[in-house]
C-alpha cells in the first residue's frame, strides 16, 4: 500500500496540477513576496514589460520580493522565480505611459532579467525568457509589439532640465528593444515609433535611448557599437559639456544619497547643490552607496522642501505652478500649484511636502472607500493617503479597513 502511494503520488500531481505541466521546459520556483496576497487582481493584461535588475541575482530577488516589484525574475543561470502571482498587480513600471494610457502596472506583467540594460543576457537567460514569454503570450494573447522594455514606457515628470513630461526616465531593459536580441527571445515585431512623443504628450529627453529603442531595424556593425556604448565615450559618471547631472543620475540627481565629487576635491550631496547651471565638467557623480538607478524603488514619494530640494521650482520647474502639483503645507492645508501666485510659490516654507503629477480623488467616507475612489490601484505604492492628522502613507502601507474617515486620496491620473 505504502509503495503504491509513493509511486502514484508524483504521477497524480503531474496529471492534476496544470502549473506543473506549464512548467515543462522551464526551471521555475515560487518565491512569493510577502505582499503577494495583498495585491489586487489586474483587470486586464495587455502588455509584458521587460526589466533589467542592474545588479546581481541574490540581492535583486530579495529586493523584488520585499516590495513586490515583479511577477517573475530570470536569473543568470536560467532559473525563473515567481514573485507575485501573475493575475495580481506587481509594482514594476512606476510612472509609465504607453499610447496615452498611464500606470501600466494595471495592465501588464513585469519580468526582471538579472543583469544590466547595456549588457547581453546569458544564453541560459535567453532560453528561459523565450520559454516564459512563449507561455505568457499563449495565456494572454499578447502580440509581440506589446512586449516592451521598461525604458520604452517609463516617463519622467518635469524637472529643471526638462520642463515637460518626458521619455528617458530610465534605460531599464534597453537592449531588449534591439531586433537581434528580440529575435533570440522569440519576438518578431516591435513598435516603430514612440506613440506618446508623436502625439505630443511627451518629449524626448534621452536621444541615445530613443535611437536604441526605435532606431534602424538592421543592426549593422555601426549600430551594434552605438547600442553598446553611451553617446559620449568618456566615463559615464562624469559631468561633461554634453552630459548633465540629470543624464547621469536621472531623478536621483538632487537626492541626499547622490554625491558629487568636484574637480577641486569638495564633495556635496545632491540636496546641498543650489545652482545646477554651474556644475563644472569633470565632476564625478556617485549614486547612492549601493543602490543603482533600477534598484531604486519604483514607488513615488512625497518630496520635502528643505530636505529633498531647496525649492518647489528647483524640483519641478514650471510644473510647480501646475494644478497637478499638490502641496502639503505644514499648517495642514493642502493646495494645488495653480492656486499659488509665483510669489507665494517662492515663499513656501521648509517642511512643505509636494507630489508632482497627482490629483486628489477626494476623501474617504463611510460610503466611499479607497477602492471606490481609485479602483485596484488603491493599495499601490504610487497612491497616497493623507490622514486627518497630517500623516501621509502610500497604498502599500495601509490596511483598507483601518483608513480613517476624511482621509484624502491622491493618485496619478
Ligand atoms: Zn525596470
Structure write-up:
- This protein is α+β, with helices and mostly antiparallel strands.
- The chain has 3 domains: 19-228, Lysozyme-like (3-Layer(aba) Sandwich); 232-296, no CATH class; 303-411, no CATH class.
- 24% of the residues lie in helices and 18% in strands.
- The chain is built from 13 helices and 22 strands.
- The chain has helices spanning 2-16, 18-22, 57-67, 123-140, 150-153, 179-184, 195-198, 207-214, 221-228, 245-249, 312-316, 342-346, 370-374; strands at residues 28-30, 47-52, 72-74, 80-82, 97-98, 101-102, 108-113, 147-149, 155-156, 166-167, 203-204, 258-261, 267-269, 284-287, 303-304, 325-328, 334-336, 353-356, 359-363, 384-386, 392-394, 408-411.
- The strands form 6 sheets. It has a 6-stranded mixed β-sheet. Strands 15-18-16-17 form a 4-stranded antiparallel β-sheet, with no helix packed on it.
- A hairpin with a 5-residue loop joins strand 20 and strand 21.
- The radius of gyration is 23 Å and the shape is globular.
- The protein starts with a helix and ends with a strand.
- Residues 9-21, 218-233 and 289-293 have low confidence and may be disordered.
- Zinc ion binds at residues 51, 150, 172-173, 294.
List the helices and strands and how they pair.
Elements: H1 2-16, H2 18-22, E1 28-30, E2 47-52, H3 57-67, E3 72-74, E4 80-82, E5 97-98, E6 101-102, E7 108-113, H4 123-140, E8 147-149, H5 150-153, E9 155-156, E10 166-167, H6 179-184, H7 195-198, E11 203-204, H8 207-214, H9 221-228, H10 245-249, E12 258-261, E13 267-269, E14 284-287, E15 303-304, H11 312-316, E16 325-328, E17 334-336, H12 342-346, E18 353-356, E19 359-363, H13 370-374, E20 384-386, E21 392-394, E22 408-411
Parallel strand pairs: 1-4, 2-7, 2-8, 3-7, 10-11
Antiparallel strand pairs: 3-4, 5-6, 9-10, 12-13, 12-14, 15-18, 16-17, 16-18, 19-22, 20-21, 20-22
The structure holds zinc ion.
Zinc ion (ZN) is lined by residues 51, 150, 172-173, 294.
